[in-house]
């Protein structure tokens, strides 16, 4: 049974750019899927259509059985909570502590305000600490995010996504701004979490080597079209 099913997804931006031209994609629970393709292929648009940061022009997106394009506001809130997002540039809340960023994943913006006023519950705080421990950052909990390295900031972003207790994490070029060793380390954290917590990952990647090393499945996208799915051996010149 699939956790996520995308059918004939199309996106035409206001300026007429056809970013997606009918993409089909199914993702199982706990599956680690890599999406590769050149810059401008539509990878980012695809992830944004799944969590409705971008409104698809045509097609269907089913998450956990719900058609997210037809969901009520309340259903959509629940769906969004179960889909975590990780970005290339980490997208942490600046001038704010590591633990507040993680609590933001659990409680949303209101949670961050509460935590800034010292009003977070002991249980929430403990939960956030546990997540920071999982990404090796419990000693950094009270640091401001600017004091952390890029790899550490991405680990905070992973902990923040986990704080939502998601079923799916969408990662848009999560290692593109990191050096190769740090990038590999972040890939390993994500893979480990995927398998231990049974959280599905859909990860946009430039680097074919990371896709080959970690993904259960590799999907290739070019000019808004899926050009391969689950091809174990392909020529990198194809992409
Ligand atoms: P990728 O993530 O593979 O680099 P994107 O999804 O970012 O690809 O972009 C796909 C295409 O859509 C590109 O041609 C890009 O310029 C275009 N595009 C992306 N966002 C917008 C937007 N907000 N408005 C218009 N065109 C966009
Ligand atoms: P990516 O690294 O995903 O390729 P881009 O540099 O293409 O990112 O895009 C950065 C931002 O600009 C995104 O929010 C994207 O939606 C937007 N964007 C990209 N292309 C266009 C475009 N042609 N017109 C308007 N917005 C765009």
Automatic annotation (TrEMBL):
One of its GO terms (molecular function) is ATP binding. Keywords: ATP-binding, Cell membrane, Membrane, Nucleotide-binding, Phosphonate transport, Translocase, Transport. It comes from the Bacteria. SMART domains: AAA. Pfam families: ABC_tran (PF00005). InterPro entries: AAA+_ATPase, ABC_transporter-like_ATP-bd, ABC_transporter-like_CS, ABC_transpr_PhnC, MetN_ABC_transporter-like, P-loop_NTPase. NCBIfam families: ABC_phnC. This is Phosphonate ABC transporter ATP-binding protein. It comes from Caldicellulosiruptor morganii.
